[in-house]
Amino acid sequence: MSVCTQKLALQMRFAIRENENIMRAHNNLTCKGRLKTRRSLTERQILRFAKLTAEDTMTQREAIYARYEKFEEELAHCYFVLHERFISDPPLARFWAEAAMDEMQHFSMLRFCREHAAMADDTPGPKTAANIEDLLETVKGLVADPEISVGEAFYASLLMESSELEEIYERLVKGLERNHPLLYQAIHAGLRSHVHGFRDAAEQFCKDRGFIEAFRNMGGTAS
Fold first, then answer.
1. C-alpha pair distances (Å), 184 with each of 25, 26, 117
2. How far apart are CA 47 and CA 83, in angstroms?
3. Among 120, 107, 222, which residue's Cα sits nearest to residue 161?
């Protein structure tokens, strides 16, 4: 092999090595860029997932509040029906009207919590809601009878007043305690008045001592 040929071969090998080094460096940079891109995408996905999870939690809470708003509104309607049924007895009719207004206030307070992002973290599960819904359907059936007696009316109300509905209402409005303390205190005062009102009405209008004792016991537990 001539000297010229040897020099040319050495130059070609040198050029090939240079190209390999350049390509290797380029590939390393490309891989690092891809890793950085992948890492960035992963972070964005995590943040997006966290945001969606928070939104889903909020939506679930709103749905729970809306469901209990409906329960309170329907119970208010039942009491308005009893007001109409006993319209010929003004004191008794007035009591049922006041009870209905209490339930409408409960409905309004739950809606206020939902619309002002003052919802509590401690929300009831679907099984509890289903139980309350079943009780409410029973009560609706009882009050739909145009011949319902005073005792039956108080029995129907006892089914709901002694259920978990009132306790859950207290839990759901707890979100107001921090930023709306005066409203929260007024709600609790209203709950005590509501329970005591049923106790007094049962003693005044109901002849069944069992119902009277049941409402009296409810009044005794009201704080």
1. 67, 66, 15
2. 54
3. 222
Q: Which residues touch 194 (CB under 8 Å, ≥6 apart)?
A: 99, 102
CA distance 38 to 46: 12
Residues 16-38 pLDDT 10s: 455 555 445 545 544 455 444 44
**Cα separations in angstroms, 169 against 51, 66, 140:** 28, 12, 20
pLDDT exceeds cutoff 80 at 50: no
